[in-house]
Amino acid sequence: NHTIAVSENNRNFLSETYDIRGSKLTRIYNGVDLEVFYKGTVSRNQVLGFSEDDFVVTCASELHPRKGVKYLIEAFSEIKSKDKTIKLALAGTGEKLGEYQKLVKKLDLEDTIKFLGFRNDMPDILRASDLFCQPSLREAFGLAALEAMATEVPVVATKVGGLKEVLTEDTAKLVDSKDSKGLAQAI
Question: Please, what's the b/e burial string for 152-165 (b: 16 or more CB within 10 A of its CB; e: otherwise)?
């Protein structure tokens, strides 16, 4: 009887794609329980397996082409050549896991990028991180970026979908989608 959209971008998509209009469609942004994501201390080594001296970028995402993780992995090829202390923690699973693992091996990034798989301890993972990156090609809202901000972790994200509504140049570093070099520079 009624559809909830999580962003204006999502609302426009639903309206155009499914012809849902007027009083049948309402936009309600997602929210984050700040008490769950309070700033606390955790051991980076215990949570992520990285050294306390490493600079850790985290991406929490389904491993699907629309999430842009491939471009983030490619960005780390450039980043590694400039700074070997920057590491990437990829939390999530999905259809591209095997392909992305092969790409990491091909780019000789096995000591730089760690696949964490499905995790239910994202608040701790974010607290153990120095930066969060959401390299999506499409995004209805961008809840993971909001969770990172709730943990006071800086965000780099792409200028797509709901991310453009949730994040601004004042709250995050925004880059074009499919831009590995732009992601590398922003990180």
Answer: ebbbbbbbbbbbbb
Q: What is the pTM of this model?
A: 0.95
Rounded to an integer, what distance in angstroms lies between the CA atom of residue 72 and that of residue 74?
5
DSSP 8-state secondary structure symbol assigned to residue 92: B
Find out whether 159 and 137 touch, Cβ atoms under 8 Å. no
d(CA 4, CA 32): 17
CB count within 10 Å of CB 172 equals 23
DSSP assignment of 127-169, as one string? Answer: HT-SEEEE--SS-SS-HHHHHHHHTT--EEEES-TTHHHH--T
CA distance 11 to 168: 20
| pLDDT for 38 | 78
Interval 63-99: pLDDT, tens: 999 999 999 999 999 999 999 999 999 999 999 999 9
Distance of CA 119 to the CA centre of its chain: 14
In angstroms, the CA 49 to CA 128 distance is 10
Beta strands 131-134 and 113-117: pairing type? Answer: unpaired
